[in-house]
Amino acid sequence: MKRNKFWITLFAAVLLFLAACGDSTDNENSGENAETETQEETDSGAHEGHDMSSSGEVPADLQEAENPTYEVGSHAIIETDHMEGMNGAEATITGAYDTTVYTVTYTPTTGGEEVTDHKWVIHEEIQDAGEAPLEPGTEVTLLADHMEGMKGATATIDSAEETTVYMVDFVPTTGGEEVKNHKWVIESELSPVE
Fold this sequence. Notes:
- By secondary structure, the protein is of the alpha+beta class.
- The chain has a domain at 63-192: Domain of unknown function DUF1541 (SH3 type barrels), CATH 2.30.30.1210.
- It is built from one helix and eight strands, in the order αββββββββ.
- It has one helix at residues 2-45, and strands at 63-64, 75-78, 90-106, 115-122, 139-141, 154-170, 179-186, 190-192.
- Strands 1, 2, 3, 4, 5, 6, 7 and 8 form an eight-stranded antiparallel beta sheet that branches.
- The longest helix is centred in the N-terminal third of the chain and has 44 residues, at 2-45.
- It is globular and about 85 Å long.
- Residues 23-49 have low confidence and may be disordered.
């Protein structure tokens, strides 16, 4: 009888040990998943409050592109991920303009964390920008209203590039409603539809 109790106790101990190891592994995986989800939330949080659709109105002094690679009404594939659901989406070009585009860092006027390397603000969306392109490091006031707290914010120019910018309509690859007149995608962020 003592021998049976020994084997039953040993068997129970082994089962408990295995169960504990299983829970440990599950907890480790749960931690990794929670970490991944937190990182994804942080990444997407950079564009939280982004108004993906717009009225399509553009600054009065913005010049239409004379010979854009992608004509208004044509289609292209978006090759960038400014926000979830953009990369790989088929876009309809609704506007093409020649200008200088900037990436900017700013703190929203509504408070909250600093937004770094925001893509894109065009020259015509900067208060008192003048004629010449602005240099990286220049402090400016934004007129763009792409995201909550953007208009009127003080920003620093991170980079500048003269190019053709496009306003586009697209259905996010993640599903949902069509985004209308999204501002802005630059030429190098588009590819032909095959």
